[in-house]
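A brief tutorial aside. Many learners find it easier to grasp structure tokens once they have seen a single protein encoded end to end. The record that follows does exactly this for Probable ATP-dependent transporter ycf16. Read the sequence first, then the structure, and try to relate runs of similar tokens to stretches of the chain.
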Amino acid sequence: MPPKNNSRKFRAKQAQQQQNKAALSNGTSKPDQSSNGSLWQEVGSGRDATRQSRLPPPPLIEGEDGYFVERTGPDAATRRSASMDICIEGINLMVGRLELLSSAVLKLTFGRKYGLVGRNGEGKTQLLCALAQRRLPVPSHIRIAHVEQEVEGDETSVLGAILQSDREREYLLHWEQRLLQDHSDDAGEALMEVYERLDELGSDAAETRASMILRGLGFDTEAQQRPTKEFSGGWRMRIRLAMALFQQPDLLLLDEANNHLDSVSLLWLAHFLKAWPRTVLMVSHDRWLLNEVAQDTILLHRKRLIYYGGNYDSYVKTRAEQQRHAIAVASTQQRRAADLKNFIARFGHGHKKMARQAQSRMKMLQRLESEMIQVDQDDPSLRIEFPAAEYLPPPPCISVNNLGFRYAPQGPMLYRNLNFGLDCDSRVAIIGPNGAGKSTFLKLLAGDIVPSEGWISRHPKLRIAMFAQHHVDSMGDLERSALDHMRSLWPTLEAAECRALLGRFGLGGSLAIMPMKLLSGGQKSRVQFAVMAAMRPSLMLFDEVTNHLDMATIDSLAVALNAFPGGVVLVTHDARFLSLVANEIWIVRPGRTRQESGTVEVWTGDYDDYKAAVERELEEAGLFAAAKQEAAALALHRLSS
């Protein structure tokens, strides 16, 4: 089929013909290569002498995995026919002297979505890092993207940063400009290759794709044009996630990528990943997200990787059934072993006939003991308990009157005319898009900042304990131990009392006296729980408390909050945790423009109703349809190649 007149290939041929005509009009049969010979000398040379492409390989730069895998061109042909499945046996993973995996096997089938679960400290993050850095033997033709850390902020626009993250496209566009300045035949042929490869990448639609992904993650048209340096760490993590999705890797590694997403963006991401036709390995504490996306679940438990078909709920059910069956079989085996031992003890030294039977029973016992089932029990869950201060009867323990707030004296109002009350038995979840002011709302309730308009009245005996999203910053010197940290806050408490308090939150023994910098994110959260418990509060405020907790600890926290006799207000994007704890939902809605102030709305339905409303908005905005088109294009490209 002849090329279309608007294709890059047609434009390359047209440009070459014009160059040849210009050369003939100057009286030469071929363009003069000497005028810019230094330009073309680089093309076709490089570190790989067997390279078939007319272009040199892209320069290696320090990156997440140190590899650059070309998706297009003659050198990518072998990659297209190679298996994209991953099977790595005999994995031994160490961090310092701590062994995390021993003779483990990792199997990932191309196109499947896997949830990687396990208790805090088991090594989930370290496994993803080992894959991304290719410390494990991942086939070299498989492209990997790892969403781990935020991008560095600079003057580059958000949209520009996403486009530039596709190194192969940037590399080809660079050579397009260089080759257009060269009038040799070889350069013309190389330019043809450049245009063919750009067409194969869908370069002309790249900006549309990037913009769609950014919209799904919460960046409107205006935000996409702003420099990346203007955004906070959470938003820069979204930019990193957008880069990974835009690059279309064969293996996408997500480590708690949902921590910095609001409910709207989380819904869009789940929809996008479900349609994504390539492999995803994700670590997440969000049960809803794992249930929505994961087709298989991998449990990292006691240095092994254990595989379960289905999503997280399916894994929980299957594992519980397996454990019940194993316990029943083990109980039967133990009873049988006890009977054999009794027989041997009674008749082992008696009559010859009975002694022979005892010898036979001994062999049966030895065989039975070699076949004994070891029940793979889960580690015991952490029990959390928050003692309460004295109960404060109505009127409301907090009353908000005509409240308004702005960050700067002349800046726009974040919200205005807020009026509500909180009792000491309230269970309120605060939701809304990132940047709307949810964390600021909690700080106003806690008294950490003061309103710009109106006032907040609090019961004179009210004690408020707060878990901030960045609570680690308030811990001060992380070289100190959790015990020293507690004693610095409560000098009247004896060391034994502080140890007992920390022990109630799973920080007993050496964990209480080691430097806090060595504690995991979840363990640092438990230190803050102990601090809050020591305050004996009447009202507790939580800002994204589930971010660094494993599933079992989240469930234990939900049980503790339901038993807590005081009030609870929490900002969370974890749908399951919200449904377990809250009986009221308040939505912080930003103004439609920068000049318009936002508001706080009491939602009359439950979280499922809110989610359905958000899904309708995303559907009407065309973002779900665009995500499906992206996935279909990827699948078609794989089939055609």
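Self-check: The first helix runs from residue 8 to 25. If you spotted this yourself, you are ready for the next section.
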